[in-house]
Amino acid sequence: MEKLEGEKHVKYILSVEKRKDDFESLVMDHLRINGAYWGLTTLDLLHKLDCVDQEEAISWVMQCYHEDCGGFGGNVGHDPHLLYTLSAVQILALFDKLDVLDVEMVSKYVSGLQNEDGSFSGDMWGEIDTRFSYCAICCLSILHCMDKINVEKAVNYIVSCKNLDGGFGCTPGGESHSGQIFCCIGALAITGSLHHVDKDLLGWWLCERQCIDGGLNGRPEKFADVCYSWWVLSSLIIIDRAHWIDKSKLINFILNCQDKEKGGISDRPDNAVDVFHTYFGVAGLSLLEYPGLKPIDPAYALPVDVVNRLFFRK
């Protein structure tokens, strides 16, 4: 079995932020705050968050804040969106700096995006997707503001996106997809609503995502991709069906996607690395209890010690 090149992955992540003009940096410009969340969480899982200048990171995150509405943009000067607001809140939670937030304004922004049917729009333009239901519920839970939304309606909307195969889509009738399933299962777990899930039926659909090379895919007839090491496995763990896949084969698949010279993890072996797949590869290995990594919470997508601090601090 290959070994995890932890030190090289740390150097790769730190180098991404310094390179402002290369292709990876330019294509991520609109979602840089997501990239910061992926990179910083990876560093924390590798016990290396102290390699980052905390004050500088927090200062930049707060430059993405829109004090007129309470939401965060994907980069400085970009429009606010639920996807970016959750990443900002997660980053501040990593650093234990949620106190820099105007929690009332942020929770007002998030709750204001709930629609009459319980769904959530991503921003003022109105696109609806179960990803946004997860973002809203996870964000408000971290901020201890779940009372700001109609949780029952939010849960009912998510349940309405459940399909006959046990999976979930982005809207009612949408195709089951591993990424959407994580969003729906994560949101149901946070709200204490997993009784709505047929765990055996969903577990079967999810374990069928393991390919012959050991990796996991997002839906039938697709190639394996490292990012589904998170989307599929976290859902299986939440519904207690992770023992239905071959974990050692999945570990091998993730480790074979590393750039062993320069660091970083790609979607599949021998492809170009990026910070997105580096995070989901390391997070997947954390879920698989790979030695030396911090454990990660499968619903909140944050290290377990961070989640414990959020909810059990004395």
Q: Termini distance?
A: 42 Å
Domain unit count: 1
- Any guess at the CATH architecture? Alpha/alpha barrel
Shape estimate: globular
Sheet having the most strands: 2 strands, antiparallel
Number of helices: 14
Mean pLDDT across all amino acids: 96
Sheet-strand content, in percent, reads under 5%
CATH class category label: Mainly Alpha
What is the number of strand segments?
2
- Cα radius of gyration in angstroms: 18 Å
CATH topological fold name: Glycosyltransferase
Query: Low-confidence runs (pLDDT<50, min 5 residues)?
Result: none
- Indicate the structural class: mainly alpha
Biggest sheet, strands in spatial order? 1-2
Oligomer: single chain
- Determine the fraction of residues in helical runs and give it as a percent range: 40-55%
SSE order, as H and E?
A: HHHHHHHHHHHHEEHH
Catalytic activity: geranylgeranyl diphosphate + L-cysteinyl-[protein] = S-geranylgeranyl-L-cysteinyl-[protein] + diphosphate
InterPro entries: PGGT1B-like, Prenyltrans, Ptb1, Terpenoid_cyclase/PrenylTrfase
Keywords: Metal-binding, Prenyltransferase, Repeat, Transferase, Zinc
Function: Required for male fertility and root tip growth. Catalyzes the transfer of a geranylgeranyl moiety from geranylgeranyl diphosphate to both cysteines of proteins with the C-terminal sequence -XXCC, -XCXC and -CCXX.
